[in-house]
């Protein structure tokens, strides 16, 4: 049930900043739309069920913030849906004392996306990204396409190259 892949994917009329960024960069990706049910907040689980993909191939994009300081720096973590973000491991990886989950309004303002649809691509302010190293063993992964009900399938290498992401063991 693998959709056709195209090297120069043309963004559809309902394009998002994420699909535009990938298309502009010439990255090989596949749009994987699915019906989003209003009221659902377990976005990754919904995508895994709807797309008939293993949940550990679908990655959630989480925005964190430094816990100290008047204007905390935001850091993005991309981790498999069934796992939990390890804030201590992420803080250690990026060299800060302590991280907390960012306020919803701050995450949405910085990325330009709604929570549940935050993509690592096409962010309003390109935030530093750390990808869980479990992704490196996968032939492809899926991340949010910038709106609820749209995931993008691509190689972990392309995600790293396009976003400048670093990798590390940041989930448990």
From TrEMBL:
Example of a GO MF term: lyase activity
Keyword Cell cycle carried by entry: no
GO biological process: translation
SUPFAM superfamilies according to UniProt: YbaK/ProRS associated domain
EC numbers, comma separated: 4.2.-.-
Domain YbaK/aminoacyl-tRNA synthetase-associated: 45-162
Family membership: Belongs to the prolyl-tRNA editing family. YbaK/EbsC subfamily.
Record carries keyword Protein biosynthesis: yes
Family annotation (Pfam families): tRNA_edit (PF04073)
PANTHER family for the chain: CYS-TRNA(PRO)_CYS-TRNA(CYS) DEACYLASE YBAK (PTHR30411:SF0), CYTOPLASMIC PROTEIN (PTHR30411)
The protein, known as: Cys-tRNA(Pro)/Cys-tRNA(Cys) deacylase
Keywords: Lyase, Protein biosynthesis
Group of enzyme by EC: lyase
